[in-house]
Amino acid sequence: MRRPTPQQVHDAIHIVLSDTKAYPTSLNYAVNYCRAAIGMGPEALRVQCLYIVNNLSSWRHEKAQEVRRILNAYAKP
């Protein structure tokens, strides 16, 4: 996969944030990391993606696999 653009990463983050019913369970920590990532520049966003992905391991959503793939691809150096 080609490295995603910051816009694609932000779109993926918005998918996570849109799953409000999972906030208290599988997204409890990821939500705060996602909110912080919205205003970050490219390098800080890359590091923040690592935090987000590590907190999405138990998240079940129809687009979860795609979101993880985008965030992992962006986080790679």
Concise synopsis of the structure shown:
The chain has helices spanning 6-18, 30-37, 42-54, 64-75. It has 77 residues and is an all-alpha fold. The protein has one domain (6-75).
Characterize the structure shown.
The chain has 77 residues and is mainly α. The chain has four helices and no strands. The mean pLDDT is 95. It has helices at residues 6-18, 30-37, 42-54, 64-75. The radius of gyration is 11 Å and the shape is globular.
Produce the secondary structure layout.
Layout: H1 6-18, H2 30-37, H3 42-54, H4 64-75
Helix pairs in contact: 1-2, 1-4, 2-3, 3-4
Tell how many strands the DSSP assignment holds: 0
Number of domains: 1
Query: H/E series, N to C?
Result: HHHH
Net shape = globular
Uncertain parts: none
Helix percentage range: 55-70%
Give the integer mean of the pLDDT values: 95
Tell me the β content. under 5%
Q: Distance N terminus to C terminus?
A: 14 Å
Q: What is the count of helical runs?
A: 4
Rg, nearest Å: 11 Å
Structural class: mainly alpha
Largest sheet: none
